[in-house]
Amino acid sequence: xxxxxxxxxxxxxxxxxxxxxxxxxxxxxxxxNLELSRRQQGYGRGGRMKIEKDKAEFLSGIRFGKTLGSPLxxxxxxxxxxxxxxxxxxxxxxxxxxxxxxxxxxxxxDLAGAQKYNLTDVxxxxxxxxxxxxxxxxxxxxxxxxxxxxxxxxxxxxxVSIGEVTSEQAPAEKVxxxxxxxxxxxxxxxxxxAAAAMMTRIDRAKxxxxxxxxxxxxxxxxxxxxxxxxVHWDRKLDAMLAGALMxxxxxxxxEIGGGFLLAGLPGSLVHDEIGYRDSYYRxxxxxxxxxxxxxxGEMVVLRAAMKPIPTLYKPLQSxxxxxxxxxxxxxxxxxxxxxxxAAIVGEAAAAWEVACVLRQKLGGDSLxxxxxxxxxxxxxxxxx
Length: 384
Known about the structure:
alpha+beta; Chorismate synthase, AroC fold; 4-stranded antiparallel beta sheet; 11 helices; globular
């Protein structure tokens, strides 16, 4: 499977084309729109979330609620485009007096993108580099989630820390059991005391014109052993998942299972011992459900570190590209903290990668073929 997204932050729409889905997969736009709504929530979000009420529309690849096996096209209209039609027009000349953005923001793609593509207006970079693009990826991830759910694979997320405020780390099993309570939390955090402290810290950052990052965790349940492969670097499941999370805007680090903590422990306290009770299982899950690039049947546990958003209402020092003089960086409408929303994007990114390796493992052109192959594979696992 593969997909492409297209669209600018203040353009007419975001579009995604998905290729490789099996035929006869039931898809519901309501499920996609629920994921899009989850992405727009979270304490610390900015004014854009009050404008956009994201909804996905199917344009191709589906009939009467089931996929056709042909490319699926999704579209999300940008409601704010009506305020940007002159500035973001696809054709014609630029309006007289239009503002040209020449003051790149530290930590953003602004300057590097302008240098790479030989652009003099940073808006031509920031419109696509914006995290607004993740709305399309969440829609794609929702399609992947609906495919995975047929096979009993589910994905949740929660926030571990925001700024210097860290929650009490709960076992993955407890997080899964309390997933409804996570969605009810404004910061997607199970630890109520930490959640309150996180919101207070976000309020302070907002008042100071600053922004905050943090860490979120993604947990995938129901993943069978044997997805991914050890035989090539680009088929390793952990590499695919890490790359997917790192591709999300503002993510600067990824851990799987025990992650960096394991580097400081002896092997006897790191590796998961193996047991057998009707099937193989691990006595612990420090590997995070992946060994040698292959899923081992345990929960897949991922964490991603998000840096603070680079758009600050108290802008940092920059240089005007027009004359190389020092100036305060440009200010765009922004969030004080988007870690809870990034967790939803993380779910989507992980869902896509697991769906891809599931398709590779099971093959087939229809959902019925995939299900038959899945049943046969489970029978095979149970005989080993």
